Amino acid sequence: MTQERVDLPPENKEAPSDANPKSAGIGGGRLGIALFIAILAVSTASIFIRFAQTEAPSLVIAALRLTFASLALAPVALTRHRAELRALSRNEILLGLLSGLFLAIHFATWISSLEYTSVASSVVFVSTGPLWVALLSPIFLREPLTRPILIGMSLALIGGFIIGLADACTWNNGLVCPSLSQIMHGRMLFGNFLALAGAWMVAGYLIIGRKLRLKMSLMPYIFLVYSMAAVCLLIVVLIAHENLFGYSWLTYVWIILLALIPQLIGHSTYNWALAYLPAAFVAVMTLGEPIGSSILAYFILKEAPGMTVIAGGGLILVGIYFATRGNGKNLNTKGTREKSKT
Question: pLDDT tens per residue, the chain (342 residues)?
Fold first, then answer.
């Protein structure tokens, strides 16, 4: 019999009902639609950030983004899910806080990398996140990598690198790109390291999310993680002597939209999907963001993507297609198997 209730005492705690696809009535089609919506939602982040950056520093934008998202979740999390929050074990709370710390460091390092290196190099290094998830999942989650995921991840990573290098390379009687010595030199080296650290942090964020979402419902998990990330980023803002106030009302509107759409809809949908799908699979899906961002930039900012960006986006789409193959047969049994072990 499927146990639907989640507000159980710690000694009898079972996997939440939303971690069981059968009990939740979720199939591959609904998951695909949800992930498509997530990609669209997170793709708006670059647009909102671009508008907000006309006045506010990037770290302030990131801190307020997580703060507004946490405040929006608080009324529901602290009322309807209070019993489940109280029933969390110390280990679950610590892992949730660690996931929030990883998310905060991801935003801080990736945003800061743009001050030291090119956007192209930053995108290339931060896009390696799925690779680190794939390497770590068999160790920390005991999830073997399937051939479709490996093929899809490889193609999507190549596509991400192509998009990242599109701004750095020019055509002058042939393709001219920065040399390795330029990429690994001085301030650029430090910026590239920050972007790589951002990739490591997002890998930790997804792996912990996969582990906890088999035990925790979505709302308590994202409230715990987003709140921790908000606190960490607010501390960083204070240390950097940045000001959270004094900007125009329109800037705060862009940041609120950033919290509502890319964070609460986009990131939360990825976290929701982690209850059903391997972390490596969800990580590959996140590489769809550059495609969505390019499409939105074309219509909103009138920035037409070049052929290189289109080619890279095509590889990402092919990679996502390959990654989705072979996962449907395990979709409706994973939650049941994990629940039977509790």
Answer: 444 444 444 444 555 555 554 444 556 678 889 999 999 998 888 888 888 988 999 899 999 999 999 999 999 999 999 999 999 999 999 999 999 999 999 988 888 887 777 665 666 677 778 888 888 888 898 888 788 888 888 888 888 777 766 655 666 666 666 665 555 555 677 877 888 898 899 999 999 999 999 989 999 999 999 999 999 999 999 999 999 999 999 999 999 999 999 999 999 999 999 999 888 888 888 878 777 877 887 788 777 767 777 777 788 888 877 776 655 445 444 443 444 333
| Structure tokens given for 198 | 């951002």
Give me the domain span that covers residue 300: 23-334
Show Cβ contacts of residue 247 under 8 Å, excluding neighbours closer than 6 positions: 55, 56
Domain assignment present for 18: no
Q: Which residues pair with 171 in a beta bridge?
A: 175
198 occurs within a structural domain: yes
Are the beta carbons of 45 and 39 closer than 8 angstroms? no
Residue 1 lies in a domain: no
